[in-house]
Amino acid sequence: MYFEHGHQFSGTEWFFGSVEYPVYNVEKNTNTWKLLRCFRGGYKHSISDDINRVLNSQYVPMIESTYLATAFTVEDYRRLEKEQNKQEIIRFIHKRFKERYITPLRGDRSEKHGFCTMAICCLMIETLESFRHGWGDTRGKSKKAFDEFFKWCKENKLELGVFDPKDFYKGVRCGILHQGETTNGWRIRRKGPLYDPSAKIINATAFHNELENALKRYLSALEESDWESKIWQNLRRKMKHVIANCQRDATQGV
After folding, report:
1. How many CB atoms lie within 10 A of CB 149?
2. Binning pLDDT at 50, 70 and 90, where does residue 30 land?
3. Which of 22, 25, 49, 196 is an S-S bond match for 11, by CB 3.0 to 4.6 Å?
4. How far is 226 from 229, CA to CA, in rounded Å?
5. Residues 152 and 100 in one domain
6. What is the reported pTM?
C-alpha cells in the first residue's frame, strides 16, 4: 500500500500524535519514518496491498489515547473533568501552552529571530482567547480575539495592555501571517523596551515574556474561580472542540 510521496510500508504501525512508537519494517530517521511521525490521530492499523480492506474498517480509532500534552491524554482529561479536579486541569493547560508556545523560544539566543517569536506569540494569543471565550476556533473571530486580548490585558494591568489592538492586528498579526513581514511601519527587535510607540518597535523577547505573564494571569483566574463559573464553562467548551478535533483526525484516516 502506498501513502503520500509513494512510500511503501508493511507490518503494523503505531503512532499517536507526535509521540514516537515502534514502527516495524521502517528504518528509523528515514523520510518514511518522518512521514509516519507526521501522521496524527492515534490508531493502529495493518498495512497491506489490499487498500480497500485497510480503508474499510482496519482503522481502529483510539481517541482516548491521543496525547493533548506530554504524558497527558484525552482519557486523562475526561477523568479530571469528571472529578472536577481544577488543580490538575490547570497544570495540564499550563503544560500544553508552555511546551507549545513558551519553551521552544527559550533556547539558544543566537538562533532566535524576532519574527518567528512574534508569529508564535500571535498563535498563542488566539489560542488563549479561544480558551477564555470557549471558541471552537477563531475563524471569523481573529480580529475580535486581539481586541479582547489587549482589552483584557489593560483591565488586568498587564504590560501588554499598552498596545493598540487594531493597529497590532493589522500590522503585526496579519502582516506576519499573510506577508511574512510586518506592515504599517511596525518593526521587530529583540532588545530595548517592550514597545516604542513613536517608532512602532516591539521587543519580541520582552513581548514573549509578558505573554507568559498573561498566561499565568489566566491560570490564576481559573484557580480563583468556581467550577461552574463562566471561565470554567468556557474552558470545558473549548476542550470539547479540542477532543472533537482529535476524533476527526483519527476517523478520516489517509
Report:
1. 25
2. very low
3. 25
4. 5
5. yes
6. 0.74
Residue 245 grid cell: 478535533
CB of 67 within 8 A of CB of 19? yes
Q: Are strands 72-73 and 67-69 parallel, antiparallel or unpaired?
A: antiparallel
The stretches of the chain forming alpha helices (DSSP H) are 31-38, 51-55, 74-83, 86-97, 114-133, 142-155, 165-168, 174, 204-224, 230-252
100 and 27, same domain (yes or no): no
Domain that holds residue 43: 4-65
| CA gap 161, 77 in Å, rounded | 32
Greatest CA separation for the chain: 65
Does residue 75 sit within a domain?
no
Lowest-confidence range among 15-19, 27-31, 94-98, 223-227?
A: 15-19
> Same domain for 142 and 228?
yes
> 10 Å Cβ neighbour count for 107?
9
pLDDT in tens, 55-64: 343 333 578 9
DSSP letter assigned to residue 28: T
